[in-house]
Amino acid sequence: MLSTAGKSGAMLEEDPDQTYENVLAEIQSFELPIEATLRSVYDDQPNAHKKFMEKLDACIRNHDKEIEKMCNFHHQGFVDAITELLKVRTDAEKLKVQVTDTNRRFQDAGKEVIVQTEDIIRCRIQQRNITTVVEKLQLCLPVLEMYSKLKEQMSTKRYYSALKTMEQLENVYFPRVSQYRFCQLMIENLPKLREDIKEISMSDLKDFLESIRKHSDKIGETAMKQAQQQKIFTVTLQKRNNVKFGKTMYINDRIPEERNEVVLKHAFEEEDENEEEVLTVQDLVDFSPVYQCLHIYSVLGDEETFENYYRKQRKKQARLVLQPQSNMHETVDGYRRYFTQIVGFFVVEDHILHVTQGLVTRAYTDELWNMALSKIIAVLRAHSSYCTDPDLVLELKNLIVIFADTLQGYGFPVNRLFDLLFEIRDQYNETLLKKWAGVFRDIFEEDNYSPIPIVSEEEYRAIISKFPFQDPDLEKQPFPKKLPMSQSVPHIYIQVKEFIYASLKFSESLHRSSTEIDDMLRKSTNLLLTRTLSSCLLNLIKKPHIGLTELVQIIINTTHLEQACKYLEDFITNITNISQETVHTTRLYGLSTFKDARHAAEGEIYTKLNQKIDEFVQLADYDWTMSEPDGRASGYLMDLINFLRSIFQVFTHLPTNSSDHAAMSGKVAQTACMSACQHLSTSLMQMLLDSELKQISMGAVQQFNLDVIQCELFASSEPVPGFQGDTLQLAFIDLRQLLDLFMVWDWSTYLADYGQPASKYLRVNPNTALTLLEKMKDTSKKNNIFAQFRKNDRDKQKLIETVVKQLRSLVNGMSQHT
């Protein structure tokens, strides 16, 4: 292009006109780019474009002239052609009309043929299509029918049949129509249907598990009721056989033997009435969800998953069932709900074990039961420890027995439960002991501690029918009369028998021999006597309001209760039919219990008697500086002696219906009397030697001597029979010798014979004599201000000082010797 532009510039320099011609030629040629050509025109010379425009206009005018010549040359031919064309137009219109008319007539003539032809074609097409459709439908209809059947089975929840139908579709029907789209859709839908069936069946299983969890207590209640009825029937039949063959069963001797037939007849009538109402676990629970789910998972080849899920869920439910309520121990209904739920759980598992193959195995149920049994025992141990009511513990025992018998009937081992019952039996005995401790306390509180008055034969027979009392001498006496014991004795005896009955109730249905029951009864009765009754008696004896009269009556009561112990042993023997001569028979320890209580009562008598003496002695009001005695004993001492006489008369009521009891009563009275005299003598001696008493006059000593004489007269009057000679008077011998020494003022004899076995003042201790003499010495100094002016008084004062020195030397000698 640059070379072309160069050439144009050169041409313009040589011949401008020729150059413009060449440029116009290039523009008309349409071969070369016009831009470079036009640029060469405008760039070479100034005003060159004007010349170029003139040349261009001239060129245009030449072309216009040529065009005009050309048009003038061809104009006539064009006019002729137009004329010819107008002629042809008229003919064409005529022809068009003719052709249109002909076509119309032809179309009208062929319409019927076309219609018939189209009908024939359509019929043949339809016939061919029908034949094809029939063939395909014959091939697809069985598939559709089976699929429809599958849908129907799904809608009616026949999932196991639906799975079998799916297998037929996949193995037989789908391969025939696999090329069709609907078949592919069905094939794609089958896995979803299987999953739906699994989910639905699992949902039904979950509902079933939830349902049996809620209804376990009803299932367990029914099972326990049936087990209880079966047991009653068995026991009743056994009783009937024993009655028939003349055997006697001592389960509770409060039921008269003549009523046995009535009881047995009633039991059999109840058994007949309940026979038609027996319900099984199948009647209470619909197990079809379990069977269906098991079959479905078996068909789907996922049986292991189902088994694991079922066992896992049931173990969770077992833990929930075994978890008791926190207040279960408060009522028997709490324990009953706990047991019925557990029984219902294991009854269901036992049913599943026997009606399915592999879902539940014996090893699995044994493992589950062992786990549950350990938990049950731990729960019962914990909750039963809170029970303080023996009736509730007894109800719990009965529930445990029914619970154990029910599960034992289903093949579960329950020996550990019966071992637990022995632990609960000890607790039951403890609650009984606490209850009877309250009973005994109430009896003791209500007793008036006086002999029982009898006004008629009926009253007498009523009492001896409850308490084994025998006294031929008393029976001969006319009415009214009194029994030696108080009201508490027959009440205590009756309550001990009631305790034995209550203890026996727990031993029933424990599958133990009569020997074991006998041993249990005797041991529990021993605990009642040696611990509970003994403690109540000791507490009673120690009570402040129990006086000497009441203590004497308590001694009488314990004596009669001790005699009744052999009748309690006979009572237990009659219940258990175990002879007391059997080698291993436990003996009752009531004898030692009542002996200990009696000894405690005797000791309390001695203590209270001494306390009463102290109260009287505290009333003493001596004038220790009196010059002359009153001439009669002190009032407090006479009151004390009169009190002692009345008290010792009470001891005549102690039982003496046998030589042993007479010896015992005499010993108690003698010991009490001797203890009282010794304590009184000691108290009087301490009064003389009291450190706070600084001075004693001879007149006070003489007055004190009058009181001691009254004590000696009381001792010599034999307030209690059985003392030999002056044994009782010896209690005051220390006082007597001391007072005689001072009254006679026989110091020479005392000092000369001191230490000799035959000394007249052998019981006078030098230290005692010294103490009393110093108190009299001080009094002598105070009262004899002018004694120094009288020769006799001066001599007596010297004698006292001499005796004091000698007594001190004796006391010092005794201390050195010691």
Entry keywords:
mainly alpha, two-stranded antiparallel ribbon, 818 residues, disordered N terminus
Give a description of the structure.
- By secondary structure, this protein is mostly helical.
- It is 77% helix and 1% strand.
- Strands 1-2 form a two-stranded antiparallel ribbon.
- Helix 10 runs parallel beside helix 12 and helix 19 packs antiparallel against helix 20.
- It starts with a helix and ends with a helix.
- The N terminus is likely disordered.
- Keywords: Exocytosis, Transport.
- Pfam families: EXOC6_Sec15_N (PF20651), Sec15_C (PF04091).
- This is Exocyst complex component.
- Belongs to the SEC15 family.
- It comes from Odocoileus virginianus (White-tailed deer).
Most strands sheet: 2 strands, antiparallel
Instruction: Note the total helix count.
Output: 27
* Beta-strand share of residues: under 5%
Strand adjacency order, main sheet = 1-2
Parts with pLDDT < 50 across at least 5 consecutive residues: 1-14, 243-276, 656-662, 784-789
Question: Summary?
Answer:
With 818 residues, the chain is mostly helical. It has 27 helices and 2 strands. Component of the exocyst complex involved in the docking of exocytic vesicles with fusion sites on the plasma membrane.
